[in-house]
Design brief:
The chain has about 700 residues and is an alpha/beta fold. The chain has 14 helices and 29 strands. The model has no long low-confidence stretch (mean pLDDT about 95).
């Protein structure tokens, strides 16, 4: 549960802290975590660094709000009188020209004028009452560089539409996108309120069909949005939307930051998707990739003006060796304008409600997390290995987003465990709303690969699930999209292996392998949901135990789409056991919607019994009981409970509707006995069959 101090402090480096005696110098976070005391100088440094940027922008740009409206100056701007102004930052260029279909690609027909700071611009007046550049036509900027006087032709950096014709070339074309008013999508629905509990459905539009092809925005809107709503998720996190050079990169080699991927349809189609989700009451987040960029030169930012250090660091410092990509220079004025404006663009143009920031670890450290195991020692989070410019950029991003859009949600993907990542900026934090609990899925995969069920350690499992920074909200998940990629397996694949192909039909033998697989799949997801954080995330298809891995079409698989799809036909087939996992996931989400455990206080764990393999905890007034024992059931098992009363089961992994045996009768009433047990004031006695879990609620709440 977020501490009162954090929640009462303003998420601004220029704002007020929640406590009267807390200094406004970035060290307020020490009140939340005294172990940060030795690093107060580093906390002050980044705090003052962020304040300095805001003051500089106040003096030179009219403030952060105006500064982040870069789309009103750069790229193609269409004025009310029909003029088109195109402006680009390319300080190394000697000359610049706008070329395209509109001037028959004449390299010298439309010269641009150089302004201060290396900004080039040109204004084109209408012709015969029509825009000088027709909507949908191709464009580029042609630059003459010093010394060699070579011509470089680049896709404009701020372009909002790029297209690719693989029959001709893998290089993207820049497209001038300005549809007539009657062809533009008009938003109909208001944004939904910021959810108290975030139940996130992470999805990739392109793989969202059982068919062997790329799914479109429109198909996702029609076929997948109703499925997500039915399941009870209230947040969608869309991957691979920012245009990326290579489909198989999963959307993480960005070449055009302002362009929605044309693989899936038009910008108007994406707007319809988001608006339709809003109409269902679903919040929509964008997977934001500001951690690195494609190294492409023909259709990316790399060597845009002939230098390697326009948007990126110069030389080796600007190269991400592990990802074979370029690293932004977060300390540069124009790079900050570009990235901050990019965030605003996606929120204002497409109505996204926030972002999951990818690769935050790479942004926080000069070593980008490469070769660092992050033992948890605080010295790893401060000092020369920290990229203060990267930290401050994230602080400025959260400053801008949370002040301009108070209901905006930001989530950080960080493997390092950086302290104060999700603490208010006024206290010296970095300002995110949530962080991802990345250790949880790693634990499950490791155990399934290396341990027998009888060797599962209940203390270690519980510790991993609750081991998060107090006061910083965490999104828990049982398996990640990375674990679905080729070379690894989903949880159900690890659990069932080859029998997933032969024994998932309801008419086939219910083998011990399938019984174990279905049981542990439900239990793993339920304990993660209940104990692992203040938010929950599921990757598309994992809710029903999607078989096989994820592999995009590439040369190594003969460009096959066989694994680049989600087989939604499986849970919809009444003759297959996938329907049981799908229905359990649905019940889990809607039960949380009713009881709200994700936004309640942290759980109280009353039992971790290694011999019995039983875990018991309370959260949101509910009693959670898990029996992970591979062979033993327990009758009249005594468990502690704080609140006296009569309880009933509200969620049972053994329910026949979820593929179980129904060994606990529905409607059974459990009465508390006023006798202290496991540190709780009362106890009840329950039957917990082998490999099952039950959640109980007071009868009065049903």
């Amino acid at each position: 549960m977020t501490s009162a101090l954090n929640s009462e402090s303003e998420n601004s480096v220029m704002g007020m802290t929640g406590g009267k005696k807390i200094p406004a110098d970035g060290t307020g976070v020490i009140k939340l975590d005294p172990w940060l005391e030795p690093f107060k100088d580093a906390l002050r440094s980044r705090y003052s660094h962020a304040q300095k940027w805001i003051k500089t922008l106040d003096e030179t740009e009219g403030g952060l709000e105006k500064f982040s409206k870069g789309t009103e100056k750069f790229g193609f701007v269409v004025h009310d009188n029909g003029d088109i102004t195109y402006r680009e930052w390319a300080p190394n260029a000697l000359r610049a020209y706008l070329i395209g279909d509109f001037n028959e690609w004449n390299r010298d027909a439309t010269p641009m004028t150089r302004g201060e700071y290396g900004r080039w611009e040109v204004t084109l007046s209408p012709k015969d009452g029509q825009l000088a550049i027709p909507h949908g036509s191709k464009v580029k900027i042609s630059l003459v560089i010093p010394t060699s006087h070579e011509r470089l032709e680049r896709v404009p950096a701020w372009i909002t539409r790029v297209t690719q014709d693989l029959n001709f070339s893998p290089i993207y074309d820049g497209v001038f996108w300005h549809p007539p008013q009657n062809e533009r999508y008009a938003f109909k629905h208001p944004r939904p309120p910021k959810p108290k509990s975030v139940r996130i459905y992470e999805a990739h539009v392109g793989i969202s069909s059982p068919e062997l092809r790329i799914t479109t925005y429109k198909e996702f809107t029609k076929n997948v949005l109703p499925r997500i709503k039915h399941l009870g998720y209230n947040v969608i996190q869309l991957m691979a939307i920012m245009e990326h050079a290579y489909y198989a990169s999963f959307g993480y080699q960005i070449n055009s930051l302002f362009a929605a991927s044309s693989r899936f349809g038009t910008p108007e189609d994406l707007k319809e998707l988001i608006d339709t989700a809003h109409g269902m009451g679903i919040t929509v987040l964008l997977d934001m990739v500001h951690s690195h960029a494609s190294k492409n030169t023909g259709d990316g930012l790399n060597q845009f003006d002939g230098t390697d250090h326009l948007y990126f660091h110069e030389g080796v410092k600007g190269v991400h060796e592990q990802w074979d990509s370029r690293v932004y220079n977060y300390g540069h004025h124009e790079v900050l304008r570009f990235l901050l404006s990019n965030l605003r663009f996606w929120i204002e143009e497409y109505q996204f409600d926030g972002f999951r920031f990818d690769g935050v670890t790479s942004m926080l450290y000069t070593h980008h997390g490469i070769g660092s195991g992050f033992s948890g020692g605080y010295h790893e989070y401060f000092g020369p290995n920290v990229d203060e410019d990267g930290v401050v950029y994230l602080m400025l991003a959260n400053e801008m987003l949370h002040n301009l859009y108070p209901d905006c949600i930001t989530i950080a993907e960080d493997v390092s465990g950086m302290p104060a990542l999700c603490v208010a900026l006024s206290l010296g934090g970095i300002g995110f709303d949530y962080r991802l609990a990345m250790a949880i899925p790693d634990l499950y995969i490791k155990w399934l690969k290396e341990k027998e069920d009888a060797d599962w350690d209940m203390g270690a499992l519980t510790h991993t699930l609750v081991n998060r920074r107090h006061g910083e909200k965490t999104v828990a998940y049982a398996e990640s999209h990375d674990q679905a990629l080729v070379g690894d397996k989903s949880l159900l694949m690890w659990l069932c292996d080859k029998e997933i192909y032969t024994n998932m039909a309801v008419l086939s033998v219910f083998t011990p392998v399938i019984e174990r697989g279905l049981s542990l799949h439900k239990m793993i997801r339920l304990i993660t949901h209940g104990l692992g954080g203040e938010g929950y995330l599921n990757f598309e298809g994992n809710e029903f135990g999607h078989p096989e891995w994820l592999d995009f079409p590439r040369d190594g698989n003969d460009n096959s789409y066989w694994y680049a799809r989600r087989q939604f036909n499986l849970p919809d087939d009444d003759m297959l056991r996938y329907k049981f996992l799908n229905e359990f996931d649905r019940s889990m989400q809607w039960t949380e919607d009713k009881y709200g455990w994700l936004h309640s206080d942290e759980a109280y764990v009353s039992l971790k019994n290694e011999q019995d393999k039983v875990i018991v905890f309370e959260r949101a007034g509910l009693l959670w009981i898990f029996n992970f024992h591979p062979t033993e059931s327990f009758a009249d098992y005594r468990v502690g409970i704080q609140a006296a009363g009569t309880y009933q089961i509200i969620l049972d992994t053994d329910d026949p509707a979820f593929g179980g045996f129904g060994r606990n009768a529905k409607g059974t009433r459990f009465f508390t006995t006023p006798f202290q047990w496991n540190g709780r004031k009362n106890f009840i006695q329950v039957y917990i069959p082998v490999r099952t879990a039950i959640v109980l609620a007071l009868e009065s709440t049903l």
